Amino acid sequence: MDTVTRRRFLIASGVGGAGVLGLGSWSIAQLLAKSADAEAAASQEPVLVLVTLYGGNDGLNTVVPYTDPAYYRARPELAYAPEKVLRLDERLGFNPVLRGLHQLWGDKRLGIVLGVGYPRPDRSHFRSMDIWQTAAPESPANTGWVGRWLDGTNSPTETAVSFEPVLPPLLVGQTRAGACVSLKGLKLPAGIEPGMISALGQAEPNEPDLVTRAATGYADLLRVDQLVRQAEQGGGQSASPDKPEALATGTGGGNALVPQLELVARCLEARVPTRIYSVSLGGFDTHAQERLGHERMLKQLDDAVSAFMRRISASGAGRRVTVVVYSEFGRRVRANASDGTDHGTAGPILVLGDSVTGGFHGEQPSLTDLVDEDLRAHVDFRDVFGTVLGSVLAADPAKYLLGYEPKMLPLFKAA
Amino acid sequence: MAGHHRVSRRPIFAYVATMTDELSLLLHRAGFGPTAAELTAARKAGYAAALSSLVAPAGPDPGAAQTPVPDLGKDFFANRPKSTPEERAKGNDQRRAQTRQITLWWLDRMIAARHQAVEKLLFFWHGHWATSVESVRSPQLMLRQHMTLREAPDFVAMVRQMVIDPALIWWLDGHLNTRKSPNENLARELMELFTVGIGQYTERDVKEAGRALTGWEVNLDLERCQFLPGRHDPEEKTILGVTSRFTAGSLVDLLLQHKATPRFIASRMWIRYGSSTIAMPKRTQENMAAAYPSPMTMLRVLFQDDAFRASGGTLVKQPVEWFVGAMRQLGLRMSGMPDKAASSILNGLEDMGQLPFAPPNVGGWPAGTVWLTSATAQLRLDLAATIAQQAQVEKLTAEGLAHMLCIKSWSDRTYAAMREVKDPRRLLVLGLASPEYLVV
Could you tell me the pTM of the whole model? Predict the structure, then answer.
């Protein structure tokens, strides 16, 4: 969106201070009509879909080094036999459940960055996920790299949307934050009118920042929800109407990737002016009886992502979408005695899309040259996010990576 | 209220002073949210007396007496080494029902308790040790941990008990941590989240501490952990520069004597009781650390601190704090509530992301603006409507509601939202959802 069209969108959506929404004078259709040209511009803009796997995905059982004897020595009960893996090349193969992703690999629409991590790896879920989301490995930061990009581009809240109940640190900036849209949809209590919520959404002078933030939550609720719902009503297959099953995980993350990505697809089809979607899947913390549990998680990932890629390709939206799948760390090379693995270090990042250069990037870490029994990372994750910032968001990466100058990876085809 | 046209031009400190005078601030922070009567009484008593009765309440708590700890009996799967699929289904149903029972009980206790600071502190500790029934599964073990936290006289005694608490051990895979194959999950969180805090130890310390914690098994029949010497690694370990044949007990002693521990606990308290946006002043931290290991004394020091008294408007109510405060102010209780309404409330809190006994991860619940997103705004409105449905209100004005909810006066925006509203329950929804009611 250029400045002029963005400005028009802001005015139409009431962000600029006019506050047209919620006063009852404009319908959603009018709003969308008003911002139609903004959308037309937005519909050309590249979109990033970040898929966060919470719990620490076992990279070695995702991208399996099926010719390496060290792999079979380190985890005899957990290792996949060479004939079981889905071959990617003569050394590496996918976990047998990743059939859809394997197909995308064959179509050259999937790039795999091998051995991604950061200096002095932290094996705490929370700290490590924080590091990935804030892109601040050295010392804690209270803003996420997407949040900083929202700050830097003065973007309205709908520019970055998460479908989780709690906003991930990733989308929190100093002055801006992305939106959280509930999968369950907006339904106001009986007798509570949008106009009342719009009133609660007004900031007042001389009040604490947090009170203003609380008010903003209501304003955002109305605006973003109207945009997303409009998209949802736009046709296509119906999103799962049931509330996703609540499976708790010790380490965070959403648990129903299919409905999250279905909603992303709908938003793309309806040209909602969102540039970054954050979705997540939790349950990768496989300390015990890993094989079954990990396969179940990977299958969910595979089903959801491959259905999403099929759908957006069919609708034409696929041309502008890049999907990035990452986790806070990989797992220990050697299995523990509970048929699981403990927290490790480097792991693969998956990058999918029509503009992605398919194939391997980076270098598969050695299983014998270990640091503290863990894999050596060869690619800093900020190089991946930096490349994405530069290519998908056309931004100066260092500006949003707290000064880190990323090594740009050849992940994307030349435009 | 229809003719309300006040234009606010006060500076922030004056706003804070009007919205939350010192006593209101103290009662909101020390407890879940005072009733109008409690606030009036505290104002009459003055700050010092109100503080004392919060942190050192006299006599037994009549609210606690009304809400006795439930007796669950044994876990369905206790003394049942093998079970049929039918039994397992029955056992899981029973566990679900009992989890609901203890969750409703604890919420009711929070609401009914007169000794509000005692109950709030317990909720703080639950967030600190952040163990979830979703993984532990046994409501008996969760209640057992709850009682351990409730009965611990101070932090030192608490950590000694918690490091061998069956729910915590299960949650952090301590039962899988053996001499032959160490599992360092519990050791890491013990250092990072429970005692010394991040940055005080190396990866090597974590691994060595993991070895010290080997050998403990969860015994569901006895509802406690048992030490199996054959699984313990008795060799020397070097942890934080000290070499010894560390065990769980001596590891905990080492961590409790570490100079970082009192400061770390003080900083955790500041985030929940002081401010999630202002950094803790060094002097406040040192003063609180000097009162370690008695948590209530640390809180007393905090509540007397100038930085605390100036911290109004910088803390977001967590969903449970918001909910329990509202229930207290409206004179509602969980006991006797129809099942359907109770279910709505539990679902509402779960959706908002904060159900007691089910923290999202071992890091506990987040703090601050994450509770103010558009997603929580929706969920809050729903839950406010459920609460309002239960309230016994015949007539209500905006001003009467402000008094009831201990809000000095509504903001212009909230008056505007309420302008056309006559129905008392709808007024209630707007009041409970108002931005000024969400921040203390």
Answer: 0.75
B326 domain-assigned: yes
Chain B CB within 8 Å of residue A218 CB: yes
Q: pLDDT grade, residue A245 (50/70/90)?
A: very low
Q: Are residues B206 and B335 in the same domain?
A: no
- Per-residue pLDDT at A61: 98
Query: Token digits for A402?
Result: 């707290």
Among B residues 40-69, those touching chain A with beta carbons less than 8 Å apart: none
Query: Under 8 Å CB-to-CB from B325, ≥6 apart: which residues?
Result: B28, B32, B33, B34, B317
Backbone angles phi, psi at A59, to 5 degrees: -65, -35
B375, B429, B438: residue with CB nearest A180? B375
Per DSSP, A408 falls in state P
Q: B260 and B390: one domain?
A: no
Say if strands A92-94 and A321-327 run parallel, antiparallel, or are unpaired: unpaired
Q: Which residue has the tokens 């308790």?
A: B113
Q: Are B116 and B32 in contact (CB under 8 A)?
A: yes
Query: Is there a single domain that holds both residue B247 and residue B358?
Result: no
Contact A60, A71 (CB under 8 A): yes
Q: Average the pLDDT over each of A140-149, A267-276, B231-240 and give the range with the smallest value.
A: A140-149
Identity of the residue in B132, B353, B385 whose CB atom sits nearest the CB atom of A189: B385
Chain B nearest CA to A102, separation (Å): 32
Count CB pairs under 8 A between chains A and B.
216
* Min Cα separation A247/chain B (Å): 8
The domain in which residue B395 lies consists of 12-55+315-437
**Interface confidence (ipTM) of the complex:** 0.93
Residue B328 shares a structural domain with residue B431: yes
On whether the CB atoms of residues B324 and B33 are closer than 8 A, the answer is: yes
Backbone phi, psi, residue B367, to 5° = -130, 155
Q: Do residue A189 and residue B180 have CB atoms under 8 angstroms apart?
A: no
The domain boundary, picked from B307, B326, B353, lies at B307
Q: What percent of chain B has pLDDT over 90?
A: 85
Measured CA to CA, the distance from residue B405 to residue B317 in angstroms comes to 14
Q: What are B86-114's pLDDT values in tens digits?
A: 999 999 999 999 999 999 999 999 999 99
| B332 and B261 co-located in one domain | no
Does residue B303 share a domain with residue B325? no
| Residue tagged 């985890």 (tokens) | A75
- By mean pLDDT, which of A23-27, B163-167, B227-231 is the weakest? A23-27
Any domain includes B253:
yes
CATH of domain A47-183+239-400: 3.40.720
Number of domains in chain B: 2
Q: Distance (Å, rounded) from C-alpha A75 to C-alpha A139?
A: 34
Distances in whole angstroms, Cα of residue B62 to Cα of each of A211, A303, B6, B67, B121? 35, 55, 43, 9, 18
B327 and B428 within one domain: yes
The residues in A 301-340 lying below 8 A from B, measured between CB atoms, are 336-338, 340
CA distance B41 to B39: 5
A166 touches chain B (CB under 8 A): yes
DSSP annotation of A188: P
Cβ pair A167:B178 closer than 8 A: no
d(CA A154, CA A73): 52
Average pLDDT over chain B, rounded to an integer: 93
The predicted pLDDT at position B431 comes to: 98
Provide the residue ranges of all domains of chain A, joining segments of one domain with +: 47-183+239-400
Is B80 inside any structural domain?
A: no
Which one of B378, B389, B414, B418 would you mutate to disrupt binding with A, by most A Cβ within 10 Å of its Cβ? B378
Q: B170 to chain A: nearest residue by CA?
A: A250
The answer on B295 and B198 residing in a single domain is: yes
Contacting B residues, span 120-139, partner chain A, CB-CB under 8 Å: 132, 134-135
Residue B103 lies in a domain: no
Query: What number is the average pLDDT over the span A125-138?
Result: 88
